[in-house]
Model the fold of this input.
Amino acid sequence: MQMPLPKPPAALFDSVRYDSDGMSLAAFVTPDPNDGDKHPAIVWITGGESNTLADFWRKGSRQNDQTASPYRDAGVIMMFPTLRGGNDNAGNIEVNYGEVDDVIAAAEYLATLPYVDSSRIYLGGHSTGGTLALLVSEVASSTHPELFKEVISFGATQETMFLQEVDFTGDEQREMDLRAPANWTNDIRMPTWIIEGKRDGNYRDLKPMCDKNKSPMLHCAFIARHEHFSVLYPLNRHLAQQIMADEPLSIDSMKSWAIKK
Done:
């Protein structure tokens, strides 16, 4: 059953539609600051069932803030897209297949906004959203190499995790392989970051993929004393500051990354 679209405060997000594969899909974007400037922006893919959005703007604690709020707090324009089959959208959930096209289409829409610097669009996601962000990096590196300045993937997995049933029409193993980021890391040609806490989470799943990686554009940062959720706030705040300063993203994995009050 599809969920109705959420209704964030108008001061935080505008409700918009973007087109992907002939479908009109919903998204939410930071309003125009009306300052005459062009701003950096990030497309953010949420975890869980990433096609659907709920109360994505409600900040969590600094130990578990899945809203990526440090970006909007720093002044980065944010876009939260719903994807095919989610909320009131047409189409069916394909679990990280057609959704790759949707994320690319969302970023192309974002690039048209007059207050967005189209040369400074980033992509980020967490958990299942991080896995999708990795797949988008692997595809867009060839099809849209200038679309994203850098990609940020928190807590992804080597393979897509299926949170709902999908009826494959073809070879099931082939369908699984296509959705597995570990199979395509050598295709990454845009700066891409895999980030995860070393305590629990998906660290043990990701480390073998990072150890085997041969792409110079893929960087892995595993953060001590953090887990799947606590790593989000301090690292997103750090990355948001670098984005606003128009600096290349960098992470010192040896730093303590304590959560500051």
Remarks:
- Helices lie at 69-74, 98-112, 128-143, 172-178, 203-212, 232-244.
- Residues 35 and 142 are 35 Å apart (CA to CA).
- The mean pLDDT is 94.
- The first strand starts at residue 14 and ends at 20.
